[in-house]
Amino acid sequence: MKIPWTKPDFWGNEIKYVTQALESSWISGGEYLNKLENDFGEILKKKHILAVSNGTTAIHLAFLGLGLKPGDEVIVPGFAFMAAANVSLLMGLKPVFAEVDPDTWCLSAKELPKYISSKTKAIIPVHTYGNVCAMDDIMEIANAFGIPVIEDCAESLFSKYRGEQCGTIGKISTFSFQATKTITTGEGGLVVTDSDDLNKKMLLYRSHGMDRGKKFYWHELPGHNFRLTNFQAAIGVAQLEKIDIILAERKRVSEEYKNILSNMEGITFQKINKDVEPVIWAIALKLDTKVFPQGRDMVIQQLKEIEIETRPGFYASSLLEIYEKHSLPGCEVISKNVISLPTFPSLKNDDIAFVCEQLLKLRKF
Amino acid sequence: MKIPWTKPDFWGNEIKYVTQALESSWISGGEYLNKLENDFGEILKKKHILAVSNGTTAIHLAFLGLGLKPGDEVIVPGFAFMAAANVSLLMGLKPVFAEVDPDTWCLSAKELPKYISSKTKAIIPVHTYGNVCAMDDIMEIANAFGIPVIEDCAESLFSKYRGEQCGTIGKISTFSFQATKTITTGEGGLVVTDSDDLNKKMLLYRSHGMDRGKKFYWHELPGHNFRLTNFQAAIGVAQLEKIDIILAERKRVSEEYKNILSNMEGITFQKINKDVEPVIWAIALKLDTKVFPQGRDMVIQQLKEIEIETRPGFYASSLLEIYEKHSLPGCEVISKNVISLPTFPSLKNDDIAFVCEQLLKLRKF
């Protein structure tokens, strides 16, 4: 592809630190892991940070920490990447899919109460594409019902909500350092909480239920292996040193797209809540079917033919065959009409202009 | 510690290949991942090789591939590292703990039939410390009952059974590249099978149930994220180039221990089956309580005081509080009296001699 949808970039000390990490120790733990966890503790101002192997294991760990049991219900948005829903099914939980806001494409606080039952044991707002859900409204409802909130921040690292870092409001928050993300360790993630009890349990679940400081091979609980390696953490530490540049470049990219496409007929940007300063993970637009009568999938195909890689919106849960069906018309409209354009920090303004020009050419008036 | 229990070593191109991998692409897949999978396909002469994030996710993937469901029973040894047992509990399966052979410390074929019920859906022999279970006898029983066998080869990579690589007999085999293992990628592992159907399902479960070649974000099943990164695979590829040296050094280490300790009163080595050419992951000895009246745990403490790091045997399942109890006297004897000595390829003969000398000094006649 001439213009890929994403591209991870080097920012400085990645290879140097990886080499140092490999030359020191590889056995569980290590200085870069400690540094990564400490650095994020300071950034997020949270008490406990656990580095893990990826954003999906982060969610799995959060569910285990909360002690969710087969039959429990968890509320997840019907439009989002389906990591939380899939982990739910793998654990025998019932994912209850909720409508999203038609403009922000994030879990709708207004619709939320109707999905709550006596079996609801967690609510998982997903901060899709870097937007942040209406957390104040969601927390008010969750607190009224006494249901813990897990924020899925896989796509929203460094976005801010009311001036605070995203992922600092819920009982637990999960993050991803997958290759396309703002900070990457290839595969990796974080689980974050202020709760000592939750952290203690999740620390055990992360590594076989064992506390080696106490007893070797003594499993206090049936843990998994969700560990991140020290040398992957080293990459994250190197990137974090350059976070100001990374965020500035991501901001430039999203503003450039906005400048060109904002008032164009047939194109609607994801609405960012007024309380949110987003770090956009992926520029996403809703195409008007009157203006793009060929449909979103054909637009993706047309752009692919001129070597521009784009991605469709997520499938709404109600369109996927593996989930229990209940109609989510709001999610389906977004799902069928959203396209996500190339978004990465080293994407040049010229390339952005070219992508926009080609997209606009595909309109039919 | 003056003499650590384990130490990962560099063998040549690790840093060079990691650097190359980081400089190419990080997005899912990559040339080193392909090479690692292809190389092991040739070594193990198996049709399908899936690189995964660690040995525990390898077992989880095998269980998902077989379609194991809550309430299903799986037979696991009562003395072994408890990854398979813990994944069972996490999936709502019932681990049924079986006796091990008193000499080889591996799943006892003789005792196996009595643990089989109509609910048994898998048998998981664990090739502990690099020994290989009596696979012919186990397969005969498993086949008679039509129960699939998953070989847990986390500790037995490159051991041979009747001249063939370990992990080539069962329906599925799982391996680990964790930091202490013969080949390491920091954290990592493999799942291996000849079955096209199983491979297809496991490939989907490894990465969110998605086949991106077909449709983006379309979840065919509720997959997890068990992916290994390309740059971790690069480390494995570099090590595999030097496998002859690594195996020769591991052999030297275990033979040196044998030379010194073999006929010493109070010390019994794990018995290696006559059909097995082992690659010893960890030298493990059973201490005679008459000769070491202070007990195994005290011996570990005494050696620690002179900076020799050792490890106890695994806890028998019947000694751990998280599993359903049924008495396993054979496993308990091994569990309480086994000590594992420093074992890694770069361990010097002088250090081995020192460890042995210090251990022998602790005997009371």
Structure overview:
2 copies of one chain form a homodimer. With 365 residues, chain A is of the alpha+beta class. Chain A has 2 domains: 228 residues, Aspartate Aminotransferase, domain 2; 118 residues, Alpha-Beta Complex (Aspartate Aminotransferase, domain 1), CATH 3.90.1150.10. The first copy, chain A, is 35% helix and 14% strand. Chain A has 11 helices and 14 strands. In chain A, the strands form 4 sheets. In chain A, strands 1-9-8-5 form a 4-stranded mixed sheet, sandwiched between helices. In chain A, a hairpin with a 2-residue loop joins strand 6 and strand 7. In chain A, helix 8 runs parallel beside helix 11. The longest helix of chain A has 19 residues. The two termini of chain A are 29 Å apart. The mean pLDDT of chain A is 96.
List the helices and strands and how they pair.
The structure is a homodimer of 365-residue chains.
Chain A: H1 14-23, H2 31-44, E1 48-52, H3 55-65, E2 73-77, H4 83-90, E3 94-98, E4 120-123, H5 135-145, E5 150-152, E6 160-161, E7 164-165, E8 172-176, E9 189-193, H6 196-206, H7 230-241, H8 243-261, E10 267-269, E11 276-277, E12 283-287, H9 296-305, E13 311-312, H10 329-337, E14 338-341, H11 349-361
Parallel strand pairs in A: 2-3, 2-4, 5-8
Antiparallel strand pairs in A: 1-9, 6-7, 6-11, 8-9, 10-12, 12-14, 13-14
Helix pairs in contact in A: 1-7, 2-7, 3-4, 3-6, 8-11
